[in-house]
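Good day; I would like, with your permission, to put a structural problem before you. A protein sequence and the structure tokens that stand for its backbone fold form the material at issue. Thank you for your consideration; the sequence and its tokens are set out here:
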Amino acid sequence: NYCSADPTLPCSICPRVCDAGTYCDAVSDACMPLREAGEACTAGTQCLSGACTSAGLCSADQGEACTGDTCDGACAEARDGATYCVRSCNRSACEASTAGGLDWACIRFTSLPGEPAYCVPLDNCIGFGDTATPCAGFVNGECGASCPPEGCFHFCIPDDLGG
């Protein structure tokens, strides 16, 4: 094809000319390095994390340090003062994460159709009745539980996600 015959063609014509770790910039029509969390963006394709927040900043990746403007999910504060970006997820990417030294699970908090699942840390909390204990992981969160066929586990829902 003409793209492989002429590698000098602009990336808007031949988008595959951009190497891994780059994107095709619409203004300069050149391949540019992907942007870090907190850098300005207009689309997720410009960001290392693949997500641009509503504030126009590249989102932190799942489990990375964040601010309210640099996380496209919820920026949850841990009891030790660290922050973690809690993003919508797919099960395999979430459960492979060890961000912050924590174990993570992909959980859907509501049964409403179309609502995303979020990647949240597993927790030793108890969320029911008189025996309720607070989330060990987050300052502002609520304990949840899931009991799939392979056994029950507890997790912490950051308040910003509707916990």
Notes: The helical segments are 2-5, 91-95. The chain has two helices and eight strands. The two ends are 53 Å apart (CA to CA).
